[in-house]
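Researcher: Please generate the 3D structure of the following complex. Treat every line as part of one assembly.
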Amino acid sequence: MPLFDKKDKSRYATFTRRSLGLGGGMALVFGILAGRLYQLQIRDGDQYMTEAEDNRINERLLAPPRGRIFDRFGVELANNRRNYRVLLVAEQATEGVEQALETIGKVIAISDAQKKRVLATLAQNKKFVPVPVAENLSWEEFSRINMHLPYLPGVQPDVGETRDYPFNDELVHILGYVAQVSPGDKKNDEDPLLDIPGYRIGKRGIERQYDDALRGTAGASRVEVNAYGRVIRELGHDAGVPGQDIWLTIDHDVQQFVSKRLGNESAACIVTDVATGDIIAMASTPGYDPNLFNVGISPDQWKDLTISDHKPLLDKVMSGVYPPGSTFKPVVALAAVEAGLATPDYRVSCNGATTLGNHTFHCWKKGGHGTLDLEGGLKNSCDVFFYETARRLGIDKIQEVALKLGMGAPTGIELPGEKSGFIPSRAWKQKRYGVAWQQGDTMSCGIGQGYVTATPLQMALEVSRIASGRNISPRLVHMVGNELTRREVAAPLDLSEQGLARVREGMNQVTNVPGGTAYAFRIAEPGFEMAGKTGTAQVRAYSQEEHLRGVTKDSALDWKLRDHGLFIAFAPVAQPKYACACLVEHGAVGHPQVLMARDVLLYTQKRDPLGMPSAYPLKAASLAGSPVR
Amino acid sequence: MISRPYATARRTLGIADKLLEVNWGLVLLIAIIATGGIAMLYSVAGGHFHPWALSQLSKFILGLFILVIAATIDVRVWMSLAYPAYAIALLLLIAVDVAGHEGLGAQRWIALGPVELQPSELMKVSLVLALARFLHGKSVEEVSKPLNLGIALAMIGIPALFVVIEPNLGTTLIIVADGCALLFLAGLSWYWITPALAAIATAVPLAWRFVLHDYQKARVMTFLDPEADALGAGWNITQAKIAIGSGGISGKGFLNGTQSRLNFLPEKQTDFIFTNFGEEFGFVGSVALLILFAVVIFYGIQIATGARSQFSRLLAMGITLNFFFYIMINGLMVMGLIPVVGIPMPLLSYGGTAMLTVMFGFGLLMSVHVHRQVEIPRHSGGII
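Model: Done. Output below.
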């Protein structure tokens, strides 16, 4: 048999033919692969590049430092302090998170509620996300954690930033506070900062009103992450824009005095610059510590704040609405002069009561004041004088002047939650009650009772306008960042100077002329004398029977039933500079509000913040960084 | 055709002659591709030789020795060893089903002392050898005779059965494809081929219903709609496409691939190594790599058609096709054109057994080349 034959040749030919055929098929497959590469890398390359970058890069928001809040001399009223905290990383806690918390609990105190919260947060986050276990630790606690770190796997000590209010409750109703973002906050606010875990926003006061400015703009850290989301390195860092500082018109020194002077009374006090309306001090007591809300308030602490009859959460200055009582009499007096009723010869005779129909209106003084002119009416705070004057004036004229003095409408102070008192009108009563306005209504309004109400802030505005004769508005914020807020010279009021002068004189007599209702509480030091007007806001209605029996002394009543004491004043009398309104709830006994206002006005005048050379930085930019004290 | 008895050839070729006869250009080509693979392993390890690149380099150097040694061994010796090799590979394959341990959900490995062996890899080469020897003795007419065809199909089918129950679908496909391609090259009649193709078309739905494992079905489903489960089973395909696509025209540059380095690619060092190549070297680099592969295959076909014995021809073509099937299945898989099956990219993917078998395969190819003038009678069974 030959080694090779035709059969071999034929199968070699077949092999070669079919090999080349397969070769062609393979070439086709390579063509498909190359085509697919073209499709993926050239045609759709950009899209996949984007997807790869999306995979790789995570943006992490950074909270910029919150703007500070200064008083007019650069005292820091709200700042940011270091927040020593302990974080726990689940995946590094080799003995499990429960055990880790247990061990941490042996080093620093953590409550069961805290533990529960931490476990819940850990469950919501990925295992490598550090979750805060305890914040605002003392340096001593923080050191202890650091010392025990070798025995605390997964624990990370961390230094963050947190809001601090160094003067605690002294300015709480001005500054407000910051607290954690609630789901409701996110509804109307798309600022990405709100999504940062643990971020805090302003909830009340300046912190809330100027939250946007104080927050600044979110920074971002571009980090490269791996498939599991772990950060590999930082690619870019944008610190964001720090929040803007805010400068208030407040003089912290006076504020502190006022706050201490009010003490634990349920009281409110405002000190203003009568020429500009700038608020120098503004306090409502008792207050509360705004730091509590930042750190996290306990249910017990919250309960104490809400059930107290001294209403610490309420800013009585602008959210407390009271009958102005006799502090409204200067308004009526001014209206009487404006209407041409109270000429220098105008007299009203008081014998202790006046009647309207079958209703008797009593004066506070049994037996009456005799015949009084306008100044005398104010000096003695004679009720009959103002019943009578109001009756003759009619409500329309009183309303007109009251509105010009800033009552009956919000003052527009730069704080959230301002309430407004009320100045009634004929139309209002008709609409509200479907009953025509009665003369009796006018007479009640004449002594600041009835439908008339005002906030202490409105009363402060009233007395400031009377003192300066200018159409000023209250102003609390001087600068936001490096921008000055409005500061135009206020126009004179649309009221005659003669009327204002007579009312000022009447108020002068209240304090500085023997027999004046506040003569006993006058400032005797020459050059510092104040003019004022006392007032009492009735808490309950006196019955006819009580009047016949003789009015029950307030001191004999329960605290809650006692009348509110009010006082408005300005000083110095000769050239008014400062005005003050003071309210002490249920404080009609012993006139604490008058004593307070006197002390406050005397202190303010002696310190004289308006006369101090460094008052208000002229060049905001140069001073923002280096506050002048 | 010059007719020369093999005894003559044997006399004229000494070891030095054989080394000179080795196609060093092809060896260089293989070395270039393997170096690219080692560079990729260095890259996906984040710029480190550990844990993969160095190990792969040592395997490749060992593989080079195996290649050269295999090349110098007479092709008739290989012919003699074909059946024993097949028998041993089959025994190991059965052993792995009994005693092997599982890796990635499949039982594929067997420990032979310190060496971890993947018998299915050995089987691919052994089957090519054994079939080449069997078909060497059959003329075109004989190949299509039912008995011969039956034996050949059994030689393919028995190992395929054991591989598929491991389970290892990818390797099964390659074994069957290799075997069938050899039958085709040996001259199988179209009267068999045409109905067979028709039968396959009907068998696929049945296989889906009764043969495929759940994880294999999941891979197919995932392939058909990867975005439906982009973070689960579709992850591989989605991320592989992103990796390759994001390379663009010129790539992100060596060591700058983010997809693999940041672990977005699973099995980045093995089956999905090509995605990193595509990401770092882009369209230009990937096509260049494909061209290198194509040139290797071209050499393979040239060697096969230039050999003077049917055994050599079938062996060379079988090895070349085996190499090609790896590239095709892996390439189509990582580019999202076919479902994910566990098939590595030859010379690039990390893996000792795969590297050594591929290099051994090239050794056999080279042996065919070196001994291309050797003629073997149709009824010869080799020289041992």
